[in-house]
Amino acid sequence: MVAEKLDKEAAGQLLDAMYLDMFHLIEEHTQCRVNLERANASGAILLARTRFQAGGCNSVSKAQIPTENSAEFNALCRVIKAKDENEVNIERHEVDKANGYVEPLHWFSVLPPMSLRHAVTKFRDCIELVAESTNLQRQLTDVLSWISKLRQSVLKQ
Amino acid sequence: MLKSTIIDTRVRLVPSVTLLEFLDAKKEHFEKVPENVAKLMKNEGYTLPLSTQIVKEQELSIKRPNIDQSLLRRLCADVHVEAEPAAKSTGKKNKKAAKGKQSSSEEVNEDAEPPKEYKNVLYLTDMHWLNDTLIQMRKDGICNLFLFELIESSDLVLPENEMKPRNPELEARCERLRAEQHNREYHKMTKNVDAGLKHYPEDTIAYQIKSLNKQIIAVLQFVFSVAAGFTFGFFGVNLMVGPLPFGFRILLGVIVALIIALAEMYFLAKKLHEYDEVLDAPKRMQQTAPKPHREAQSGVQALKPHAD
Questions:
Q1: Are B67 and A15 in contact (CB under 8 A)?
Q2: Helical H runs in chain A?
Q3: By CB count within 10 A, which of A27, B10, B104, B277 is most buried?
């Protein structure tokens, strides 16, 4: 009897903690998405600025991106599984021309303008934020499923 | 309508009547109350005893709670997942229906109805406070309620994007720019059909050479003044002061040339930047008023037919 009561108490506290955790996760996730939106928007603006400054619409354009027939190259940035099974990480590789890791900036010009460089860093941040957001979302889904399970077990008692 | 950025990222909870009544019933036992909760109770028509201390939000600790995973797994070991979602959603629906307030309609058609302003809401800090207080009260044996029992009848308001109508000024400007773009494309397309359109100023060689000339002159000026500065340092000082050693003369010349180069560099950069602006200007002018331009152009053509 006492053990059961203790169990119920523990379950209740756990459920409370999970709800609070859920609220935390929601807030963090929202904040993360807001940051992502900001980084993406400023990156896009910087890109537009580059095109405006370089003049003409052919300066920084899709036509400079390699197509299917171009030489092969390796990705500089990969999504990998973190040690914790449920999370993802971003892995970045150094630029290394000999081994096929090319610098994408150099497709557009040998001396890329400052705004283009800034745009690149912004979009890099975006990728990090996307990974972070994914991790948070996974945690949130986990917590939600745990909450529903725990509620059932609490209701049963 | 455009979605704007989420400004307030906080999670909000609209307290249910049960929660408010609970707060009212147990108010004697609260030692401290967060500012927001105090305000909320005042707005809802409840009073707080005078002895209660009102604390600022910043003073409360908010940390993500640690979850005992092993205990969680043990407790949930005998639970089947399948039946839960349906049961839960209907349970929620019932609650919403029972409440019969704005929340249900908002859930159903989010786009049609702009989200209502919630005045009295609980934030995360308040929930942390409530949780801590409840733990304390359970310890003291005052009540036997849990946070989840209190908040399950309340509505959760998630942070949402604010819908903003598009600024009409911006819309007009976009429209104008689009029209200009189309116009320019059309002119480009019909350039070699309509003879009158053939000679835009920036197409003629004279125009390009002229603008090139300006820049070349600016650069030449720079070179000449630096050379003159060196000559002055090399010969001029020598003539004035008397015979100087050769090395010192070169040094003097280089110093004077450097000073002049620095000053000149500044003006050169400024000038070249201005030329860029001037070069861009006719393009912009042409977008806004292509027709008058064309007439002016024909005038130019009449004056200098040999331009091309």
A1: no
A2: 2-54, 114-156
A3: A27
Taking a C-beta distance cutoff of 8 angstroms, is the pair B22, A40 a contact? no
User: If 0-12 CB within 10 Å is exposed, 13-18 middle and 19+ buried, where does residue A146 land?
Assistant: buried
Which segments of chain B are extended strands (E)? 2-3, 12-14, 32-34, 53-55, 155-157, 163-164
ipTM > 0.90, yes or no: no
Q: What pLDDT is recorded for position A43?
A: 93
User: What pTM does this model have?
Assistant: 0.63
Q: Compare CB distances from B76 to A13, A30, A146 and report the shortest one's residue.
A: A146
CB A64 within 8 A of CB B48: no
To probe the interface with B, which of A6, A9, A19 has the most B CB atoms within 10 Å?
A19
The β-bridge relationship of strands B53-55 and B32-34 is parallel
Of B88, B127, B280, the CB nearest to A20: B127
Find out whether B155 and B13 touch, Cβ atoms under 8 Å. yes
Q: At what angle do helices B246-288 and B290-303 cross, to 10 degrees?
A: 120
User: pLDDT (tens digit, 9 = 90+) per residue, B72-90?
Assistant: 777 777 666 544 444 344 3
pLDDT in tens, A41-77: 999 999 888 888 877 656 677 778 888 888 888 888 8
Number of Cβ within 10 Å of residue B192's Cβ equals 9
